[in-house]
Amino acid sequence: MPEELGIVQVYPELLGTYGDGGNALALLHRAAARGVPARLVPVAVGKPLPREGDIFLLGGGEDSAQLLAARLLLADGRAHTMLGSRPCLAVCAGLQLLSHHFDDADGRSHPGLGVLDVTCGRLARRAVGEVVTEPADLPDVPTLTGFENHRGTAELGPGARPLGRVITGTGNGDHGWEGVVQGVTLATYLHGPVLVRNPALADHLLTSAAGKLPAYDDAEVERLRTERLDAADPRRHFRRGRHLVARRG
Ligand code: GLN
Prior knowledge:
The protein has 249 residues and is an alpha/beta fold. It has a single domain, classed as 3-Layer(aba) Sandwich (Rossmann fold). Helices cover 29% and strands 27% of the residues. It has helices spanning 22-33, 63-75, 79-85, 93-97, 194-197, 199-210, 219-232, 240-243; strands spanning 5-10, 38-43, 55-58, 88-91, 101-103, 109-111, 118-120, 122-135, 144-152, 155-156, 164-168, 177-178, 180-182, 185-188. The chain has a six-stranded mixed sheet, sandwiched between helices. The longest helix is centred in the C-terminal third of the chain and has 14 residues, at 219-232. It is globular and about 45 Å long. The structure holds glutamine. Glutamine (GLN) is lined by residues 17, 60-63, 66, 92-93, 149-152. Residues 17, 60-63, 66, 92-93, 149-152 line the site of glutamine (GLN).
């Protein structure tokens, strides 16, 4: 485990819609609660990604900010290696930036970093609202909740797996899946911030970077999680027993 975890926030001025900067705060808080020293490393526009980062975060962004971020990342000779090899969470515009290519509002295709085996087209209509998904492949993460506001889709190639199956909301498109897992990279359309609403996902990233962590319960976070799940998916009370309890390893 590194002496101090570097939580790298990529271009917070460009990529941080809907409070996605809170993902970094969630990681710092949950690391400190386990006595794991961690520090925030914001990367300003025009600066290269640092080599010493342990967890990389890319937030959402409006279309124009996203295009600028794409140009900057493609010009940073280190970005592909760092974002493809370290634990990383990419949200919404961040997901699209890590794809092979993504479409803009006029349907023009732009290259992404190609870290994820994903291509991003456009939905017929903007997807806005609450989302609930059931993680497909992460046994340590229970039902996920978040908020989506995007036009982009995500078509996964054979190298990528979906993060979750959609219970409520749109997610990657019309095929019932949300987000991407590829190696130690997680990508999602969920805002919230997603790591505040879903502390087990924050712990999954921290564990990828720092190894197994002691359990940490935060009653207020669990109350918020339950409230959001109930608001997004009222049918949930029928399934409560199966969904509510976070599994701990
Ligand atoms: N501009 C992108 C889209 O609409 C990303 C939006 C976002 O990050 N919230 O798909």
